[in-house]
Amino acid sequence: MAGRGRLAALALFTLMGTQLQTGLAGGAGAPVIVGARLSQDENGAKLVFDLSRQVEATTSALASPDRIVIDLPEVSFQVDSSASRVGAQPHVLLVRGFRFGPLTPGKSRVVIDLERAACPAMVSSRSIVEGEPAARLTIELKACDPSAFAALVRSSAILTRIALPPVTLSQPVIVLDPGHGGLDSGARGLRGLQEKTLVFDFCAELKRQLDKTKRYSIVMTRYGDQYVDLDDRVAIARKASASLFISVHADTLSEDANVSGSTVYTAADRASDAEAARIAARENADGGRLSPASRPGNPDVADILFDLKRRESLTYARIFSRGLIESLKAATRLNHNPERSAGFVVLKAPEFPSVLVELGYLSNAQDVQSLSSPEWQTRTAAATVTEIDAFFAGPGKPDNGPSADNGVAPSAVRDTAPLAH
Ligand code: ZN
C-alpha cells in the first residue's frame, strides 16, 4: 500500500478491565476482539483487529453515505470504542471512523465510514504467534476513483471473500490422561489394587468406545505402564491440539473407608473444599508445575489473549464437568460432593478445557469392586462418551461457541447509527 511509512496512528483502542470481566460470562465461545487500531494517510487506511482466534471476514460497500462493511461471525468486542471516532482528529484523510457491534444473532459487523471513495485493497487474517490461535485481522483500504467505488457498490453483495487458512474440518482431538504409571503407581487400595493400572484400563476402554464412534481423534498421554511427568502430559495435549483433556485418577482415604464414588474436578486457584485441596496436593506431588514457558510468546497482546483463552477454556471445562456428572449418575455411584475444583497441575493449560475424574476410592470396598469390574468400566466409559458427544454437538461446542448472546457490547455501539445502514 502506498505511503505505508507515513501512516499516522489515529486510534488505538485500549483494553478495559471491566469489560473483560463482564464480557466473558456472556460471550464464552465466541471469538473475542481485544484490540483495534486504525491508521491512515491520504492514499490509504489500515484497520487491524486482534482476536482470540481466526474468523472469516466478508467485505462489501454501501453508498450515501459511503461505507465499507466488514461482516464477521459473532464476535465479542472487548475494546474501548470511545476512540473510534477519527473526526476528533484535525485531518480526516480517507476514513471518518468506524463502528462495530452485534448485527443479528450469530453475526457481527464493522462499518468503516468513508470521507472519500476507498476500495478494499487487502484483507488478511493470520496468527499473531505461530502455532497459537490468537489472530490478527487486517483490512487495508486504498483511495479509489468514485466511479470505481460506485461499481463496487453495484456489484457488491460480496466484494472479497478472503481465503483464510483451511478451515479445520478435522475431528475434535480428545486427550485421555491415565494418571501415574511406571514407578509411580499412584494410590494403592484394597486387594492390592493399583491406581495406575485401574485408570489405564479405564482409559483404554474409553478410547476403544470413542474410536468406535469415528467422531474423534484420541491421544493418550501414555500407552503403557510408563512414567510421564505432569508437565509432559500437558505438553502432549498441547502438541496434539487437544479439544478436550480428560485426566483419570482414583483416590484412597485411609481414615474413612466409607467415602466413595466418582468426582469430577476442574481447575481453580483455590480449592473448592479441604478434600479437593488434599487430593490436588497428592496428585500434584508426582512432579510437574505449570512452567512460564507454557505461556504464548511475548507480543503485548499475548498475555491478555492468554488470560481470555484460559477463562474461556475453564468455562467449557465447567460445562463439560457438569454434563459429565449428570451422565455418570446413571452409570455409577457419585461422591456426595461430585463437582469440585482445585489447583491440579494437569488442568492448567489455557488452550483447551480440562477435567480430572477421580473414578472412586480404592479404600472403599464397594468402589474397588466396581472399578475393577469390566462391566462397570464399559458402562462408565459409555456414560462418558455420551457426555463427550453432547459436549461437541451441543450449543456449548467449543469450536462454534454458544448460539446465545453476544456478551457485552461496548456501550458506544448503541449510541451510533444502526450498523445495518
Ligand atoms: Zn492419581
What is the general shape?
elongated
The CATH architecture of the largest domain can be given as: 3-Layer(aba) Sandwich
Class of the largest domain in CATH? Alpha Beta
Query: How much of the polypeptide forms β-strand, as a percent range?
Result: 25-35%
Low-confidence stretches: 1-28, 157-169, 288-298, 399-421
Helix/strand order, N-terminal first:
EHEEEEEEEEEHEEHEHEEHHEEHHH
Bound molecules: zinc ion
Helix/strand-derived category reads alpha/beta
C-alpha Rg (nearest Å): 25 Å
Classify the helix fraction into a percent range: 25-40%
Number of strands: 17
CATH topology tier name of the largest domain: Aminopeptidase
- How many individual domains? 2
Average pLDDT works out at: 78
The rounded distance between the terminal residues' Cα atoms is 28 Å
Q: How many helices in DSSP terms? A: 9
Largest sheet: 6 strands, mixed
